[in-house]
## 1
Amino acid sequence: MEAVIEALARKKREILSLWIERTLDSYVAPGFFKTAKDPFANPVGSNITTGLTALFDLLLADAEIQAFAQPLDQVVRIRAVQEFTPAQAVAPFLELKWVVKQVFSGDQGLKPLLAKLDELDCRIDRMALTAFNIYSECREQLYRNRIRELKSGSSILTDAACPSALMRRAQQGESAGLEK
Amino acid sequence: MAVVKVDKLARSVAEGPSLMTGSIPTKNWMDVPAVFKPGNYAYPAKAEVIRYLDSQKGVSFPNAREWNPEDDDWKLPENWKEIILKGLADRLDRFRSLKIFMDCCVRCGACADKCHFFIGTGDPKNMPVLRAELLRSVYRKEFTRAGKILGKMVGAREMTAGVLKEWFMYAYQCTECRRCSVFCPYGIDTAEITMMLRELLHMVGVGINWAMEPVSNSNRTGNHMGLTPQAFKGNVEFLCDDIENLTGVRVNPTFNRKGAEVLFVTPSADVFAEPGIFTCMGYLLLFEAIGLDYTWSTYASEGGNFGLFTSNEMMKKLNGKIYAEAKRLGVRWILGGECGHMWRVLHQYMDTMNGPTDFLEIPRSPITGTVFDNAASTKMVHISEFTADLIKNNKIKLDKSRNAHVVATFHDSCNPSRAMGLLDEPRYVLDNVVDNWFEMPPNTIREQTFCCGSGTALNTDEIMELRMRSGLPRANAVRYVHEKHGVNTLGCVCAIDRATLTTLMNYWVPEVQVAGLSELVGNALVIEGEQRQDLTEGLRTLV
């Protein structure tokens, strides 16, 4: 594993760049997300870039799984409200396996390491499973938000009938009943 | 990106091909149809609501029916295309601005990445230039010689049912916030293009319920909820009881009182829904503290005007009640509460739509003597201007320590900032009521402020995901000041903001609550004779 870690550290820039590019390619028109650098003008691109970069470092450091939560959240919270299926939303994390293999395959000196990626793959799987947890939490938060809006009265705006119209209808109903 | 298939996933584990295929567009935008699925569209207006509105004087909402955006057949009237093209011709004739906006865009792209919907979704049709192009392409085909002859080569296309569906999709993925127009070198107001699209769609009975039911209720009872005068008055009185419990001050507002000096109009959400009610308690306390001679109206009981998101005629009709009531009650001028789009209507349209107001006086604060010349034509003053003037003239006593629980930032609501230039007054008020507040980054505030993502009647729960992604640019800036400065309160001056930013924060930055500026004023206000409890959370404290 040490040799793998060392190679990953050496190829960090290449791997990250491909990983981020492929993740942003999951959007219909990714050009802006890839190029705009201002984090406030381009929150999708910049949060995904920062998040994936932090995750890569954590993987190299074999950090505790709790440490992954914040950067995973940074990426997943965005993808959980965009037009992705759940699988598509968390696919980028597993994609790192492909990216690493791609980069190692392109370097003669690193090819022998391709057979030794089991532990890295396992760490990536753990990260992806944590991402799935966070995805579910995000979706549950959305449903709680819906319920909170319904309870708070905001929804009375349209989902309740106009009280005065109801009153008038009830009165008309009564008088119609009397006439019969 | 393609859907991940199980067999592919299995193979990927074995052989390691990529799970992601990318989805860089290979088709021209004109060839990508709008696909409606649960969650990406707001529910259509109920037929009974449209029928009722169409029966009303001065407005037209024909072709009421039950229809479903997910169906192929939208049950459009047989001659729908003729209706749309006639409607467009009529509007090009009536509105010179529309004609210019159709002709003068050079597609420079300055607006392209400024829209919060585009920034949050990456959908190219959410670039303001392309959203406008949805209409412009039809305009070219039908109203320009080049378009008639050269067609698609010059970006012209036929009006088809598919185009109409695309209009519905993207006219309701625009909050008319006008951030894009700040960056347009030609000053094209994409909000006005969205307004035209929505008007045209209404001609063939295509609209959304979250806009039309409040419009219908407002037309009937004067406010979005359809509150009767008794219920409206009752709600305000409940708030007075709460104020008395919290501060020991008994506030006794009057309703529909003839001869009052000032008429106060605010969004009805301030009267019935959290967190707006705390803002409302702030107004009530402030007016009590200065002894303002004012009245509420149960007729002009709604500052909001969803007509702005519907049609010119509807906006004018709903707005009419404010001047009518001011005249009936014989007040001198009008004071308006915290609302966003309400102020666009009041500041930019009210005077020409329903003026002139020769029966009112140029607003003059009875407390400070300040004359609000900026409101000389509309005769209506914003509560933040009014409050800032009171503070400047030392007419109210404020104790910032009562907001010790607050570390604030300020969200410029789209309309007050971009449509009326209300930028410094709220900040001045904030300076005087809280010890700690921090600005968000410069490209997310003032004229460049980001929308809450749920304006123009898009604050409905069936499109929650859409609201969250379009609100991301705003939330992202709030998260930054939360992490950097420990900000826990997002101040604003808009009723839709108060409702929708609360939901937005719950998702993106749950540590931050949303408060109207007048709530923070109410928290800090020291009133003679008060017997205030220890209010650790200001007017929100449960006692």
## 2
Amino acid sequence: MSLMDKTARSIAEQVRRGELSAVEVVEDAFERISAVDGRPGVLDYGEISDEDKSKVHAFITLTKDRAYQQAQDVDRRVSAGEDPGPLAGVPITVKDIFCVKGTPSTAGSRMLANFVAPYTATPVERLEAAGAITLGKVNLDEFTYGSSSESSAFQPATRNPWHTDYVPGGSSGGSAAAVAAGEGLLSIGTDTGGSIRQPAAFCGVVGLKPTYGRVSRYGLIAFGSSLDCPGPVARNVGDAALMLSVMAGEDRCDSTAATLQVPDYLSSLDKDVRGLRIGISPDYMRIPYPDLQTGEVVVADLPEEIRDAILDAAQALADQGAEIVENVPMPNMSYGIPTYFVISRVEAASNLHRFDGVKYGYRTQSEFSDLREMYRKTRAEGFGLQPKLRILMGMYVSAAQYSEQYYQRALKVRSKIRSDFEAVFDPQGAYRLDTLLTPTTPTTAFKLGDVYGDTVLMQYADQLTVPANHAGIPAISIPGGISSEGLPIGLQFQAPDYREDTLFQVGHAYEQATLDADWRKIKPQVMKFVE
Amino acid sequence: MTDYETVIGLETHIQLNTTTKIFCSCKADSWEQPPNTNICPVCSGLPGVLPVLNEAAVRKGALLAAAMHSEIRLTSHFDRKNYFYPDLPKGYQISQYDMALGKGGYMDLPMPDGSMRRVQIEKLHLEEDAGKTKYEGGRRFVDFNRCGVPLVEMVTGPDLRSADEAAQYLIRLRQLLRWLGVSEADMEKGHLRCDANVSIRPVGFTGLNPKSEIKNVNSIEAVRAAINKEVERQIELVELGGRVESWTLDWDDAQQRLTKMRSKETIADYRYFREPDLLPLELSEDWRDAVLADLPELPLERRERFMHDYELPEYDADILTGDRPLSDYYETAVEAYGGDPKVVSNWIMNEILRMLNELGISANKLVLRPEHLAEVIKMVDKGTINNATGKSVLAKVQESGKAPGDIVAEEGLAQVSDDSALQAAIDKVLAASPEELASYRGGKEGLFGWFMGQIMRETRGKADPGVTRELLGKALKGE
């Protein structure tokens, strides 16, 4: 068994005890990468070959030298009897939306293709300080704007390791695909509307969106600043818990980071779920979406396989002693996407203002006669379609004459969505839920090119995940089965503010209860390259 | 010709004198530093950075708000003001919009006729400064050093009625800022910047006519000159049957000329929205009370009190409250002296102010403490030393740091009023000046002063002038 098929916790344990060298682990990681990843994403990618179509392409930048240096440092600390940290020797990947000192930090955009960050994002710094080893920066939708990772300026785009004709989801598609294919054991992603959970579900891995503010955003190239959450992507719940415990906590560089103490998440793994109140909501089992022909909003039931996965999971947890509460109303969840359309675009448009060709990043190579023309050409050439769409919409709905009608109204709806959760989590309320169990996504992964190009429909891939971003609450996606097409199905658990411990507890209990399930024996397609 | 009234509102940007910038730990002051040497990822707007609010800026802003009689909001918000400019590295300025730190307020300006002009404050908020752009050789250079310097933007109502009043407002504001210790308020260094909104209207008309906005009036003289020029232009225009349009004008101080920057466009839309990277600014009542406990008696209040309690003329009170160290100096001296406060005022207005001007320092930096001054005045009162000696003792204290009494004793400066000693000096002078004596006795009585001078020289200035005059008179008459 390759080291890349083990858990992060067991690798760290072995490295800490000196039974395994970090350098060996890193060698294994790069071996796996060269087996399954294919060429990294680049701006000038030429033809996409059949060979390309069979590989993962999780990476934009491999930081091999840095990784070996870090590994040697960990080994040196171990042999010197120093504490190498709780993630000693664990190879990780970093979504290329985080600044990492001395490495290109591209955001998947031509705009930042030449930008080398002079500082390291707080959560990445914490992971590295805990002994984790950064293998490189992984691909994503441009500036995280998308749900398939197809919109990156760096192609070939990341493909789903379970079936490379399918998207890995997005925007943390590179993170989820890398972890699923064993290209590193952990990855740090970001979740603004579902960008960790949705690709985790599509790639059959664990993805956690922590409570807003639980993890510092310092060094994360912002999308929707009031929604963005850095979080862990891992292959099992325990590894995600370990990773969060390292990343989370107060940061003097981020005043929106919570000052609350970080609990011992690992200790919540072994708590049983007896008496835990788990809700199921019919509002998460049918989804409204706009009909492409008529523009009318139609309501459809979720695919049966996904519904069944949820009900089976509920049953498995009930068997462990959890109380299942059915018919939990979440009346405002269907407004999640329209509300998100407005709020995230306003913040995104403003956050993109700084990319103007003046200080860093791309500046037009063609002639310009004045400042305005320099701005116009730089931004026209540097941004891809997705950032442009977000700028247009964001500028429109925040304009003085429309702000009341759109932006201010969206803020009100956002607080209504939050009040749905407050009502069902209220310990004195009618439902008194500890957690709400829902599907993570309305469908399993779709094929490359199937949805891309329809920005609205693409956005609806996030409709079960986005309410948690509006509300600021934590939510986790864990693997909950494999569809008849051989694609993973994700289960989502949501919990009250700062109750990530509950998510780990219930997620771990489900994992343990289904350890021997047949679907867990199925491996991703790209593992054929590993023999 | 119609009589016109001038209507002016001022928009000021005040640089707070905090140690560090408002959202990062770079130094706030980078005066004369080479471009882009006082910057960090945060103030230069690198991808991924976040602002962290400097509490000292809030404290100074709150102190200023209180001094402007503005209500301090316990919950205020920061907002993004979005616009593109090369010296604005994030493409938005973090400012405060509809829920700013200060709400309302006013400043009372004493008018020459003794009345007060109340100037309403319409806006008072915290924000970050932008950088500087420089054009040279057809190229544009950007310096981010100033990015993130804490500012208070303060906007008055259209309440000022002349260029002189506008200048008065700035003078009083500058005095207040220094008095509170919240800003160095040096206009030359851009610590206090001003734009003026100017319109005219026929006397009796109470509405507001279209105004022009004059940018870049960054000295008291410039404010006065630019407003006068603009009022002249507007009156001339209206008299010729024209209409004033809302222009933005640039004041060229070197040429003493206004140039048109742009005419009224559609109002810029800054797409304000709450800054999601900062939490709402929540101040506790305890915090506010602690800040307000530091609020000193304000210059105008102290001026009133000096006129009332010390019965000083307005002129004296105004000068003595010109800055806080001086007025503290005066009060300490009055207390130590115990006598007529006007006497202390005279000494300060003559001797101490001259000394401060010569040394270029403020009163709290004098070696000569107010207690020393009081001691000198008392010695003069008692006749221990004369007035002239008193003045020279002040200088000696400042130089040596010794107590006035010690200096007088060591240098034997006490006045000679002993008759026999004085008589001896007089006799000596008369004996040495037979010709002058003859002239005097021959009717040239103007020589009396000359004899006094000789005696003062003989006694090295210590002669009690009253006694000397009496004895000299007798001696000259040959009595």
